[in-house]
Each structure stands twice: as C-alpha cells, then as structure tokens.
Amino acid sequence: MKAWLESHSVDEIRVANNARSGLRRMEVKIRGLKRRLEDERVKKRALSPFVQFYVERHAAGGYDGMPPIESTRSAGQEWKALRAEEREVRLVAPLASSVE
Fold first, then answer.
1. How many domains are there within the chain?
2. Cys-Cys with 90: which of 23, 49, 65, 98 at CB 3.0–4.6 Å?
3. Rounded-to-integer distance, Cα 79 and Cα 39, Å
C-alpha cells in the first residue's frame, strides 16, 4: 500500500480522498473505500495555541486524576486568565514535547 501511495502525487491522493468522502455522503457502500488514504508526505497541521497549552499542562501533571471534561474546563479558564502577551508568546514558542 505504501509503495502504491508513493507512486501517486499528493494532489492525486487529495482528489481520491475527496471522492471517497463524496461517496460516503451519498451513502454508497463500496468495499475497500471506507477509509481515507494516509499519505506521510502531507505536512500535518500545527496545533492551536490552546491545544499546545493544554498538552504542556497535562504533561506537567497539572490535571492528574481529573476527568477529561473537568481538565479541559480548567485549562480553558486558565487560558482565558492569561494576558494577551502570554498567549502571543505561545504562538511563536515551539511545542516542548512532540505530540503525534
């Protein structure tokens, strides 16, 4: 599968994924077309500043033992409490731990 994917361009894979998505919307059940083609050459989108903040706080052990809903709510309150300057720094700062 990987060799086959690499034999096509990134744009061809994108068009194929869009076609598969369209088929799913039309509820056409075609065997083998149920999942997206994952192309390793496509760059992953960067995490949003809030997600970076949440991942760093979670990795630091700030939300140990909390249910996910409460930890997200707490992180949101902390994020809103930050000054605009502190949020802007987060836009430029690289993610401390790689999340993939």
1. 2
2. 49
3. 34
Residue 69 vs residues 15, 74, 75, 76, 78: alpha-carbon distances, Å: 36, 9, 10, 11, 14
Handedness of CA 58, 60, 64, 70 (dihedral sign): negative
Residues 37 and 67 placed together within one structural domain of the fold:
no
Written as six digits, the tokens of 25 are 């919307």
- Label residue 32 left, alpha or beta by phi (over 0 means left) and psi (-120 to 50 means alpha): left
Residue 62: domain span: 49-92
At 51 the three-state DSSP class reads helix
CA 52 to chain centre: 11
Q: Read off the pLDDT of residues 65-84 as tens digits, 9 standing for 90 and up.
A: 889 899 999 999 999 998 88
Q: Is the pLDDT of residue 18 over 80?
A: yes
Q: Are residues 39 and 17 in the same domain?
A: yes
Give the three-state DSSP class for 50.
helix
- Residue count of the chain, please give it: 100
